[in-house]
Amino acid sequence: MTKTCVIPEPLLAALRDAQHLCILTGAGVSAESGVPTFREAQDGLWADYDPLQLATPEGFLDNPELVWRWYRWRRELVAKAQPNAAHIAIAELASIVPQLTLVTQNVDNLHQRAGSHQAIEFHGNLFIDRCFDCALEGSADPQQDVPRCESCGGKLRPGVVWFGEAIPEDAMNQSFAAASDCGVFMAIGTSSLVQPAAGLADVAAASGALTVEINPDPVRRGFDVVLDFEAGTAIPHIVDMLGR
Ligand code: OAD
User: Fold this and answer.
1) How far is CA 8 from CA 93, 165, 176, 182, 242, in A?
2) What is the full DSSP assignment across 68-121?
3) Using one digit for the tens of pLDDT, what is the confidence trace for 141-174?
4) What pLDDT, in 10s, does the model give residues 125-145?
5) From the alpha carbon of 162, which atom of ligand 1 is closest?
6) How many angstroms does the Cα of residue 191 sit away from the middle of ligand 1?
7) Is the pTM here over 0.85, yes or no?
C-alpha cells in the first residue's frame, strides 16, 4: 500500500514565515532521473567502483586513463538524464520564498537544467575540465585518452572535488553563510556522511533554523522534521501546499 505524503502544518507555517530557505541536495535528488547514488547498497556507485581509484588525486595520478574512462561514462549517463519533479519543484520554490539558497553536492547539472541557475556547486561540476597542474579550465579533446592542458601541457582532469581536496572557497563561504542565516534548512537526498557539506545542517540548527530531512531511507541525525518520502513526491507536494 502506498503511503500518503502529508506535510506537517508546522513545517508549512515555518516555510511561509521564513525569509530565507537553504536547501542542501545530494545524489538522492537525481535518483529518480536514473542517476545512481553513491552509497546505496544495491545500485550505489561505491558498491561497484573504488572511490580511492576514481575520486582522489592519487588515484588520478596512478591511472588517469581509467579515471577519464569512468568520468566520460558518467558524463554520458547524466547528459542523457532529464531533470525530475524534485529538481523542477526546487526551482519553483525560488519564486515562492523571499530568498532561496540551493547548495548541491551533485555535479550533474540537473538543478541548473531545471532552472536553478544560482545553485552553489559544492563538489564542482562534471562537465568542467581543468588542468591538474596549473588549474586553468580547458576543453578536453575527446580523441585523447588523457586530454592535455593547452597552456602548460599538464593533464586535464574533471572539475569535480575529490576526496582529500578543498571545497571551492566561494562555495564554502556562501553555503555556510546561508546555513547560519536561514529560517528553514532542508537536507534532501543526502546520506549526510560527507563533510563539510553534512556540517551545514548543524550550523543551521545552531543558528535556530528549523531543520528538515527528505529521504525515503532517513538518516535521522537530529533533524527537527523528517519526511520519509522520495524527493520527487515530497517537494512538489510542498510547492503545491505553499501555493494554496
Ligand atoms: P549518497 O549516495 O551517500 O546518499 C544518497 C541518499 O539519497 C541516501 O541516503 C538515499 O536514501 C537517498 N535517496 C535515494 N533515493 C532518493 C529519492 N528518490 N529521494 C530522496 N532521497 C533519496 O549521496 P550523497 O549524500 O550525495 O562526493 O553523497 C555525498 C558525496 O559523496 C557526493 O557528493 C560524492 C560522494 O562521494 C564526491 O564525489 C566528492
Assistant:
1) 17, 39, 27, 19, 12
2) HHHHHHHHHHHHH----HHHHHHHHHTTTSS-EEEEE---S-HHHHTT-TT-EE
3) 888 999 999 999 999 999 999 999 999 999 999 9
4) 999 999 999 999 988 888 899
5) 39
6) 5
7) yes
Residue 229 has pLDDT above 80, yes or no: yes
What 3-state DSSP class applies to 58?
Answer: helix
Q: How far is the CA of 139 from the centre of ligand 1 (A)?
A: 28
Ligand 1 test: best mutation among 30, 39, 172, 223, most atoms within 8 Å of CB? 39
CA pair distance 212, 151, nearest whole angstrom = 46
What's residue 48's pLDDT? 77
**Residue of 114, 138, 111 whose CA lies nearest to 123:** 111
pLDDT at residue 40, rounded to an integer = 74
Give the end-to-end CA distance of the chain in Å, rounded to a whole number. 28
* Confidence check: pLDDT of 1 > 70: no
Residue nearest to atom 22 of ligand 1 (CA): 28
Closest atom, ligand 1, to C-alpha of 51? 36
92 Cα: distance to centroid of ligand 1 (angstroms): 22
Ligand 1 neighbours by CB, cut-off 6 Å: 26-28, 31-32, 37-40, 44, 55, 105, 123, 160-161, 189-191, 193-194, 214-217, 230-232
- The question of whether 123 is a catalytic residue gets the answer yes
| Domains, the chain, with CATH or none | 1-35+83-123+167-244 (3.40.50.1220), 37-80+128-160 (3.30.1600.10)
Q: Is the dihedral of CA 134, 140, 144, 146 positive or negative?
A: positive
Count Cβ atoms below 10 Å from residue 8 Cβ, excluding itself.
Answer: 13
